[in-house]
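User: Could you go from structure to sequence for me? I need the amino acid at each position, not a summary. Structure tokens:
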């Protein structure tokens, strides 16, 4: 059972930033839900150096057809020059949950 839904992962520098982006996406019905997890420790390469930062991870559920719009909003609102925006396809899920998800997005 393949679906037309995605999980979108975005990290932010603060919980407030994650909440602000999530609320905007929810109000525009571009996502059905956002879980904010953190703080998490991120270790990554930036400008040829290994960096370490405390971040908050947003786990958002949406329709595949909305990914470009979600990406545009995140890029506009995000404080990072290169925000993490990753999409994972939802292959299967509870029918009742997926029906609810569909009812929440445009």
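Assistant: Here is the amino acid at each position, in order:
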């Amino acid at each position: 059972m393949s679906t037309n839904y995605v999980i979108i992962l975005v990290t932010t520098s603060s919980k407030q930033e994650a909440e602000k982006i999530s609320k905007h996406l929810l109000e525009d019905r571009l996502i059905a839900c956002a879980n904010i997890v953190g703080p998490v420790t991120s270790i990554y390469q930036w400008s040829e150096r290994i960096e370490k930062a405390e971040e908050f991870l947003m786990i958002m559920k949406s329709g595949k057809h909305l990914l470009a719009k979600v990406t545009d909003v995140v890029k506009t609102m995000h404080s990072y020059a290169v925000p993490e925006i990753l999409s994972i396809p939802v292959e299967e899920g509870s029918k009742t949950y997926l029906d609810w998800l569909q009812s929440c997005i445009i």
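One structural detail worth keeping in mind: The longest strand covers residues 49-63.
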